[in-house]
Amino acid sequence: MNAPSATPTPPDGALRLADWGLIRASGADARSFLHGQLTQDMQHLPRGQARLAGYCSAKGRLLASFVVWPVADDELLLACSADLLPAVLKRLSMFVLRAKCKLVDVSGDLALWGLAGPAARTATQGLAPWGVGSTGARQVVRLPDAAGDAEAGGAPVPRALLVQPVAEPAPVAPALGAAAWAALEARSGVVRIVAATAEQFVPQMVNLELVGGVNFQKGCYPGQEVVARSQYRGTLKRRAYLLSAGVPLSPGQEVFHSADPTQPAGLVALAGSLGAGRHDALVELKIAATTEGSLHLGAGDGPLLSLGTLPYPLPAETAA
């Protein structure tokens, strides 16, 4: 007789985030410059707080997404996907012109670590989501929790970003696997645009405004008219959903619906794994494809996908 399988342990530990990078924006006009480029209000972002922000093309498509926080009145750090950083830094720098703002890639000077589970909870004691704490040269950003995995008890999983000089020793915590961190990113419902998904999504298609990444009261920025039109004219037909599969998924993979197996119904935005057979993804989908029929990865007859539950509600008119 076989012994019953043990319940999977919830993720806990630290991971050096090789797929993230950091930009430093400094100077008297750093805030005003970023305010005119990003979907978020940079002028009124206080010390001790981080914000999610998108950087859009003129067509309103996301070129990148950032976690942004000030380290001084005239200095901010922007964390984004490393595979997009050089192109995004070059593009942003083209528009600085006469503004007193210097943009520099500081990924070689500052190490980014992802913390999850008890390690994140310990590091962020007293911080609300998007709160920033500092100890010497170290800074920690509390990220929104990831939805809990039913096989590991279902409790939400705390997450955090730790930023410190590269010469500093690694955090004292268990080693966290890259696939597990990626799964928690997906399960948080907070998108991170990567090279495979750049220019694929209007912010609302990946729920960016639902997680606080779009400020509709601020002034203009590239793509602002498209983003506003999507918000107020009721034309949105796509959203991001949490899906799971028995096989690994990757950003940029297409998802198909049984009702129309020849045309893609969505695109994987983020994906990771908490263990064998426990593969999760944040997927941009046609809203109509979530109400009936079946979803498949890569082709109409590809691996079956199942809908999960995001850690925040979708608007009633778009909820599956």
What does this 3D model show about the protein?
- This protein has helices at residues 30-35, 85-94, 118-123, 178-188, 224-232, and strands at 13-16, 20-26, 51-56, 62-72, 75-81, 102-105, 110-116, 132-135, 138-146, 157-165, 238-245, 254-257, 260-273, 279-286, 295-297, 304-307.
- With 320 residues, the chain is mostly beta strands.
- It has two domains: 13-177, Gyrase A, domain 2 (2-Layer Sandwich); 195-307, Beta Barrel (Elongation Factor Tu (Ef-tu), domain 3), CATH 2.40.30.160.
- Strand 3 (51-56) and strand 4 form a beta hairpin.
- It is globular and about 55 Å long.
- The mean pLDDT is 94.
In short:
This protein has about 325 residues and is mainly beta. About 15% of the residues lie in helices and about 35% in strands. The protein starts with 12 loop residues before the first strand and ends in a 13-residue tail after the last strand.
